[in-house]
Write a structure and sequence with these properties.
CATH architecture of chain A: Beta Barrel
Number of helices of chain A: 2
Strand order of the largest sheet of chain B: 1-2-3-4
Oligomer: heterodimer
Number of domains of chain B: 2
Number of strands of chain B: 4
Shape of chain B: flat
CATH class of chain A: Mainly Beta
CATH topology of the largest domain in chain B: Beta-lactamase Inhibitory Protein, Chain:B, domain 1
Number of strands of chain A: 16
Structural class of chain A: mainly beta
Order of helices and strands of chain A: HHEEEEEEEEEEEEEEEE
Helix content of chain B: 40-55%
CATH architecture of the largest domain in chain B: 2-Layer Sandwich
Strand content of chain B: 15-25%
CATH class of the largest domain in chain B: Alpha Beta
Order of helices and strands of chain B: HHHHHEEEE
Chain lengths: 315, 170
């Protein structure tokens, strides 16, 4: 299963939630983790999700899936302190995850943040890239697959160690991330406009010793519709196969149910492709969400259709 | 790629293993889930008993105090009931300030989380939602002081504004 990407807003929402009342023993914590009740302390909160997914394609591959990911995160947010921290562990299946045979464990967000004011903060640690309308975690996606063919994300970065400074207001946000790759600096810059209600526009520029990426996207809510468009281009050092991918998405909410239509296409991984996805979804509760997806892909001269089913329990 | 920090992966895996192993190592001292649930039930029973004792004490004190006052029996009974109700209301207001229907009536769509907290006080739970048109949910949960009835109220937010409320059955 490929990794998923998220934008910073979505992840921050997930991180600062879950302030629960009482303490609980470790046995109760891990014994009933799927019950969405993890009482910790006022300063320490826990959150996460379990993602079950199955896919089947007519390209000759077998039905694949099972427990795709279990994520467990802890957020330390003392009310009177300017310091906070987040630690997330991701358990992903690399084989028969349902049977617990092969599990790949990784840190996702692992950060210490100093908020010098309500707007300005400084963060150090393993930080998620600014890139992308499509979220890293499954909980933020409108459909199952990423916009690239073969369920590939089209962004050039995900998590990386470094430091960032973020300035966020109601109307706009600026961010700068700096890391190091092979003794050279890797940087990412974010400029976001949120000054118009229901409209979000983000521009991200990434310059790394191995690539240069421009990512721009916009989303707009009107009535029960959400519309989004995105363009991502990446020039890879030493490669003639530079990527340029367009994406357009429309989502309609029927209350607890919703329907996503998405088109993506362009040049990616050295191939021209077109992909069209239809994905109905349903929120069974605030904690449980399920969806189906049908994606038709045309990569070069080859085409395929992929079916996916996914059920997510967040807590 | 930023993710090419492969040399650190072993250290991260080791840290992860320690974090995961820590609860397992304390299994001998940990409380089993069944025991925890039994304890939780016991605590609820004790709280119910305590509630009865407190109410009885309040009534006894009030009865003793008012017995010495020059009133008719009906006036005394009425006064005692009023005092007991007032004390119970104060206790509920102190512990669960959101347990007032009038406060929920003040909530409107478009209010900010800060405005909601100003009316209802801090929520019992604050958690994200899987609904695509809900960002996070404030849950207010507690038991009525007099009846011990469990009541729950919900406030849902999207893009920083209230989009839906479910008032508790008070």
């Amino acid at each position: 299963m490929l990794q998923r990407k998220t934008n910073k807003q979505t992840n921050n929402i997930m991180k600062i939630k879950k302030e629960l009342l009482a303490s609980l023993t470790s046995a109760a914590l891990f014994g009933s983790v799927a019950n969405a009740e993890i009482p910790l302390t006022d300063d320490l909160s826990a959150y996460g999700y379990i993602d079950m997914a199955y896919t089947d394609s007519d390209d000759g591959s077998n039905l694949e899936g099972g427990a795709a990911e279990f994520e467990l995160g802890f957020a330390f947010n003392p009310a009177e302190s300017k310091w906070s921290a987040v630690a997330e562990l991701s358990f992903r299946g690399t084989g028969d995850f349902g049977g617990g045979e092969k599990v790949d464990t990784k840190w996702e967000t692992l950060t210490i943040t100093y908020a010098s004011s309500d707007e300005l903060s400084f963060t150090l640690g393993n930080i998620l890239s600014y890139q992308g309308f499509e979220t890293f975690d499954a909980t933020g996606l409108f459909q199952y697959s990423y916009q690239g063919y073969g369920n590939s994300p089209v962004y050039s970065a995900s998590y990386a160690y470094g430091a960032c400074a973020d300035y966020v207001t109601d109307g706009y946000a600026l961010g700068l991330w700096v890391g190091e790759v092979d003794d050279s600096a890797s940087v990412e810059f974010l400029a976001a406009y949120t000054g118009t209600e229901d409209l979000t526009v983000k521009f991200i520029y990434a310059n790394d010793p191995t690539y240069e990426t421009f990512n721009v996207w916009a989303s707009y809510d009107v009535g029960n519709f959400t519309f989004a468009a995105e363009y991502t281009t990446t020039d890879t050092v030493g490669s003639d196969n530079d990527d340029a991918v367009y994406m357009a998405l429309a989502y309609y909410s029927f209350g607890d149910a919703g329907l996503t239509l998405r088109y993506s296409g362009g040049e990616f991984g050295g191939s021209d492709f077109d992909k069209f996805s239809v994905s109905p979804g349903y929120s069974f509760s605030d904690n449980v969400f399920g969806l189906l997806e049908v994606s038709y892909e045309e990569v070069g001269e080859e085409d395929s259709t992929t079916l996916a089913a996914e059920l997510i329990y967040s807590f | 790629m930023k993710t090419k920090y492969n040399t650190h992966r072993f250290l991260f895996a080791l840290c992860g293993a320690v974090l995961i192993a820590a609860p397992a190592m304390s299994v001998a001292e940990a409380v089993a889930q069944e025991e925890f649930l039994a304890l939780q039930l016991r605590v609820e029973q004790l709280e119910a008993s305590l509630r009865i004792v407190k109410n009885t004490q309040v009534e006894a004190i009030a009865t003793e105090t008012f017995a010495a006052m020059p009133m008719t029996q009906d006036d005394r009974n009425s006064l005692i009931e009023n005092v007991v109700e007032r004390i119970q209301a104060r206790e509920e207001s102190a512990n669960f300030p959101w347990m007032e229907a009038s406060k929920w009536a003040k909530l409107n769509k478009g209010m900010s989380p800060e405005e909601v907290v100003a009316v209802l006080d801090q929520p019992t739970l604050n958690e994200p939602s899987m609904h695509k048109r809900v960002d996070f949910v404030y849950t207010y949960q507690g038991r009525r002081v007099v009846t011990a009835k469990k009541v729950t109220g919900i406030v849902r937010f999207y893009k920083g504004k209230v989009i839906e409320t479910e008032a508790p059955d008070l």
